[in-house]
Recover the amino acids of this structure.
């Protein structure tokens, strides 16, 4: 397709004075960024310009949308990682003979300056965590071509310019528009940015793995499943399991940061009564899910990964419970999560603790303890709820045999 450049500034939601002029590439307010250990480069403007010059069509967009939706289903955000186009073993995408890859390689071969050095576009695409972030992807009409942009230099700025691709009689006109969250809710938008996670730390989702490097990712599930695993014989065990979660606050306030990822952990005393252990898992809410206060129902089979405590034994006086909103890539900081045991015939209380790995930037949502006497009471055995007005979690104690 031919690319005709129409620099018409459109302000869909907010009005900016002094902007009624023609804009060239160099005047677009695109950001510079670091990506892992690669050299600092002005990748954003170059990749946005590259994508805007490709012969994108509905088939290519469908390819990207399929991967983005798979990413959400695996418990990640609405991301399409460029590196998976060249990786011999992918973790999220199962796309073969990618049309987008063919178009990018044609561009790189025709623009030899993009293929040299560690800071080249080619190296950035193949070896970094740069992605297409497509917010509200599941609202795409299957026809409209995307507006392509990236985060602005000012991290607090909630808008940026973008290239809107308009089909017109076999050609595509590029229109410069202002992109913000309201615009992305009504139009398909591809935001070129670094992911909020390290690709090397992800499990191989397409091979059925959901745990890697101590992090368990909880996949999407549209309907609740309350079947408890029960075997024909065995001792009765008392599982504490999280059954649902709802988030109504955008913890990542700036649109460019994407949705919100949460780490949930429970601490409990081990049998000795003097040490603690923990179960930890992650789940992600897209910005649309948060806007709509969508409830995620988790599988309550005791073989699932959203179990807080597989067997709340009688000597475990209290269990700890904490939630963080994850803001960093590497979980390198130790967080002490308390719990209490009763020991001996006099039921002396002994404080215990377990270590949860978080990142220094993670935001603590809640840290509390629940006692066994409450959770096993007639009131406690009913499904319980944590609700701070922003996050609502339900969990329950259930009997099962193993």
């Amino acid at each position: 397709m031919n690319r005709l450049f129409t620099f018409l500034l459109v302000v869909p939601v907010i009005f900016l004075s002094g902007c009624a002029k023609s804009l060239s590439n160099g005047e677009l307010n695109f950001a510079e960024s670091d990506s892992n250990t690669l050299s600092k480069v002005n990748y954003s403007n170059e990749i946005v310009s590259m994508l805007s010059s490709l012969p994108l069509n509905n088939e290519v967009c469908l390819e990207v949308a399929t991967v983005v939706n798979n990413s959400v289903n695996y418990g990640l955000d609405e991301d399409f990682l460029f590196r998976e186009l060249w990786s011999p073993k992918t973790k999220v995408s199962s796309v073969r003979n990618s049309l987008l890859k063919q178009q990018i390689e044609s561009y790189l071969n025709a623009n030899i300056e993009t293929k040299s050095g560690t800071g080249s576009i080619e190296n950035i695409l193949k070896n970094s965590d740069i992605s297409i972030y497509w917010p509200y992807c599941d609202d795409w009409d299957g026809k409209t071509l995307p507006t392509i942009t990236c985060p602005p230099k000012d991290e607090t700025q909630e808008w940026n310019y973008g290239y809107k691709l308009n089909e017109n009689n076999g050609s595509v006109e590029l229109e410069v528009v202002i992109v913000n969250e309201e615009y992305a809710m009504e139009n398909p938008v591809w935001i070129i940015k670094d992911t909020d996670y390290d690709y090397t730390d992800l499990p191989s989702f397409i091979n059925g793995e959901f745990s890697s490097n101590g992090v368990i990712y909880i996949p999407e599930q549209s309907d609740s499943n309350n079947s408890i695993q029960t075997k024909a014989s065995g001792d009765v065990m008392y599982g504490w399991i999280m059954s649902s979660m709802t988030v109504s606050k955008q913890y990542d306030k700036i649109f460019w940061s994407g949705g919100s990822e949460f780490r949930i952990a429970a601490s409990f005393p081990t049998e000795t009564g003097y040490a603690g252990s923990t179960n930890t898992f992650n789940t992600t809410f897209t910005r649309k899910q948060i806007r709509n206060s969508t409830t995620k129902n988790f599988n309550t089979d005791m073989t699932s990964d959203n179990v807080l405590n597989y067997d709340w034994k009688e000597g475990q006086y209290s269990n700890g419970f904490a939630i963080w909103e994850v803001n960093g890539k590497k979980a390198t900081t130790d967080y002490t999560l308390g719990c209490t045991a009763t020991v001996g015939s006099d039921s002396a209380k002994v404080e215990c603790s377990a270590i949860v790995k978080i990142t220094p930037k993670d935001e603590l949502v809640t840290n509390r303890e629940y006692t066994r006497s409450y959770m096993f009471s007639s009131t406690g055995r009913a499904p319980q709820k944590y609700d701070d007005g922003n996050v609502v979690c339900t969990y329950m104690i259930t009997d099962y045999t193993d």
In short: Residues 109 and 364 are 47 Å apart (CA to CA). The helical segments are 43-53, 58-73, 99-110, 121-127, 181-186, 287-291, 372-375. The radius of gyration is 24 Å. The longest strand covers residues 236-247.
